Amino acid sequence: MIKVLFVCLGNICRSPMAEFVFKQMVAERGLSEQFYIDSAATERFNEMCHAGIHHGTRDKLKAMQIPFEEHYSRQIRPRDYVYFDYIIAMDDSNIDDILEIVGPDTENKIHRLLDFTGHPRNIRDPWYTGDFDESYDDISEGCQAFLEHLLKENSDGKRG
Ligand code: 4NP
Question: Which residue among 8, 12, 47 is best mutated to probe the pocket of ligand 1, counting the most ligand atoms within 8 A of its Cβ?
């Protein structure tokens, strides 16, 4: 079982989009049983408001015919670092915030999603840009590259 936690600032726009895009990619390859996939926030505000997925993310997932369930924002906790194998951030500031919460990345679990691509960069926050199409394109590119990385790592015999 490979456990993956996608993380962004609010856990209502980018990380739930990544969660459901990645779940769909894994399902299309018949690998759902081999993964546990979730998402979380670095800040606590949306958890306190019991905020669900932003309508921009919902609309884009629907338009792309990617299934999703209800998801409520929750803040990442130190125990998530122990439980998950991969903690995948959307941008540099997420990584700084994750490290403040979970402590040093002693097991090299924390990565930026687009660092798995040939064009490493941040995923801009659609909460501020309003551009959920751009988020989707970046997230799809990153999830594809991340999955290929995992499959290669697995076939090299590094993981179970
Ligand atoms: P996300 O976007 O990190 O992609 O979920 C945000 C959502 C909410 C807020 C900031 C960013 N907020 O300030 O509530």
Answer: 12
**Confidence check: pLDDT of 154 > 90:** no
CA distance linking residue 14 with residue 8, whole number of Å: 6
Q: For 33, which DSSP code?
A: G
Q: In this structure, is residue 22 part of a structural domain? A: yes
As a whole number of Å, the end-to-end CA separation of the chain is 8
Range of the domain at 72: 2-154
Q: Which atom of ligand 1 is nearest to the CA of 9?
A: 3
**Which whole-number Å values give the CA distances from 109 to 4, 28, 68, in the listed order?**
10, 25, 25
How does pLDDT run across 63-99, given as a tens digit for each residue?
999 999 999 999 999 999 999 999 999 999 999 999 9
Residue 24 is encoded by which pair of tokens? 């769909």
DSSP 105: -
